[in-house]
Amino acid sequence: MAAAKNNRAIIAVNRFGLGARGNELSDAQLNPEQWLLQQLVSPVFDKSIGDTELAFDTIAKIKEFRDRRRDGELIGQVVSTEIVKPYRRSLLIDSLAISVKTDRPFAIRLLDFFSNHFSVSAPTQSMKILSPILERDAIAPNLFGQFEDLIIAVEQHPAMLVYLNNTKSVGPNSPIGKRTRGLNENLAREILELHTLGVDGGYTLKDIRQLAMAISGWSITNDRDAKPAGFRFRIKGHEPGERNILGKSYPAGGVTQGQAVLRDLARHKKTAQFVSYKLAQHLIADEPPKELVAAMVSTWVKTEGNIKAVVTSLVKHPQSWDSQSKKLKTPREFVVSACRAVSHSKTVDQTLLNVALRGLNLMGQKPFGAGSPAGYSNLNRAWSGSDALMKRIDWVNLLSNKTRQTPQAVAGRIYDSTLSPLTVKLLAGAESRAQGLALLMLSPEFQRR
Amino acid sequence: MAYENSKKYDRRDLLKAAAGSFIAWHSPAALSLTDLQGSKNSLKPQPKLVWIILRGAMDSLHAVLPLSDPDLMVHRKNLVSPVKNSAFDLGGGFALHPAFKELSYLYKQQQLIPVVATESGAKSRSHFRAQDMLESGLPEADADSGWLNRAVEVYRGDSLAVAHTLPIGLRGKQLAKTWYPDVLRPAQDDLYERLQALYDNDELLSRQLDEGLKNRRLLTGIQKSKNQFSFSSLAGSCATMLAEEDGPDCAMLEIAGWDTHQYQLGRLHGKFKELDEGIAALREKLAGQWDKTVVVVSTEFGRTVVENGTKGTDHGTASAMFIAGGAVAGGRVRGRWPGLAASQLYEGRDLMPTSDTRQWIRAILSQHWNLNSAQLDYVFPSIKTMDAQLIRRPSKSDTAV
Prior knowledge:
heterodimer, A: mainly alpha, two-stranded antiparallel ribbon, 23 helices, B: alpha/beta, 3-stranded antiparallel beta sheet, 15 helices
């Protein structure tokens, strides 16, 4: 019985968490399920490192910088190195630091899941500035509330509006639309296909058009607008009149029209199925057990999409605790768990975070770099190519040379006595601490969760 | 200096702190600050000290072959036969492995002392424990105090570790710099072999590793990028830094991969070559400073006298060390040979240690850096002074500088 309890703690810490850090394993051992459920609290970010306001200020700085350069100043300086890179880097490092330090790793895993679900990435300077803000300002505060509040916050956030070209989408019969420009369906399409119902969600091209019209005029502030900077509903760009989506009509109502559609989409059974399946697939197995997904969907329907309740039903389901680890860690999970494994004090070494960020770039999971609104893949095969493993080996080799802890001490802390005899044997035979740590982090136990 | 130590202390405060703690710990009445700190000649060239630690336990019987010992061929015929005819004769019944081209040259120039049957002071065949002992140099290993750090502290010099993080050998009160090329280094071949064993029960990871290795071998470009992490390249960069004006007085380098439990013939040939080329790079890049340089090469323990069942050797006790450099009075093998007859072996299986690595280093610190006996006791409290002259006595032209 002790062994079984032990294994549940290992599962809690690794499958749902980000790998043990410090005494986390013993904390989880008391009651693994409860240990997970008490973590369902929104992560809090330091706004001074970056928020929507600061992002807009930074974008304004770029404009100013370009103006000055046009006037012959700042010769030889580049916007990206002077302004964008330092700003973005401090945000990416901050997010890694939080992941490495957190004592609510499950909350961070869920944040990462939804951050990838609402993937924003693009090579333009303004997107580089905006993309790291979405999870901080829109996703984190709504992480454990109603899914409808989450998607409204996300679809109205400048990062999403700019990324999927809604800022200039205007209704054809709106005052602006009659003079110039027109509708852009991009965001509406992805809301239906990627954020809510899923590609097989039963919507038609007409529904996409109608949704695009419902959210036409959803834009962002410009220089002339009053503060705070961020979302701005431009009534003059909004398509007037009633909308009809998935057989339901939505009366004219300005910004509330689109919000009403999003609320219904969030509660929709197809959305419940699509998001529950994807979440179970992310956490449990590439092909998650049907009963597990059904339990989540039923909770979703009953609670009208309460994320905390849905996550709770997943944690409480016996099939989430299968003793076989079916998932490979994504590069981010791997890198963060490796950093957590060697961090046992309260502080996180800056060098370690730089190494972590480098690892993500090396292993092909750059933060906000998926390059597609679909985000990074949820599936094992996306992260299990032979080159992927070689990159992990290279990176571990770098990391393990940056710490001098004994592999046995780290293994004891993060796995107690659950490592396989083969792994234990190879750790014991390592010729140096660095090699032993490398073997630990490359072991099947550490690669899977 | 990609990973230079970020803390900066006032040098004098440090010296005060160092001296204070030493005096409290040692003999309070007898020593003053000047006794402890000695006086470092500020003129060039400076006596440089380079320590190369071989992690994983070098098989000394394969490096310095005791060819005249009748039992050698009894214990390890398969390991000795392929190399014995091409080995470099050192006289006195010993020969250097043929891969040691630079070391052979240095020996001829009387700039190399191979020392046989040395121990690190660790009564343990655990790599970690023994490496800790070797680096710490104290009767009980202290992971926060390395012998080279204590030595350079009392010498009032500067030090450099060619590593990502500070190894124990250079941890302590003197703030050592660390340096390492700021690009990802491919792992040691040995790590890949161990991973193959680790993935024995994991089909997916095992297949990935095989494919990954195959692909890497196809990409010759990878080999090129490996060059800057080769030991000779690291040693060359280290030497360049040492030779700079106001460069460090000492440096520590490490080579892993000596744990040759299997197929050691080919692997050790590669390791010896790597070490040898590194020492050649040190000599080349230290240029004019080489004449005042001592390079110490040592390992945590030796390996079993008898070859094992996988064409390798297992963890043993005594090993060998090398003392090389333009400042060295070399040209002969040192250390008492304990013999390889069954009755002469340590615990019936290992080469018996006849001297302690620290004794030799202590003599070097005394003769090369002119540390006095109080300072030497601070560096190696439990070790007695030995008489052997290891460093060339300064000629007239040296003293005139």
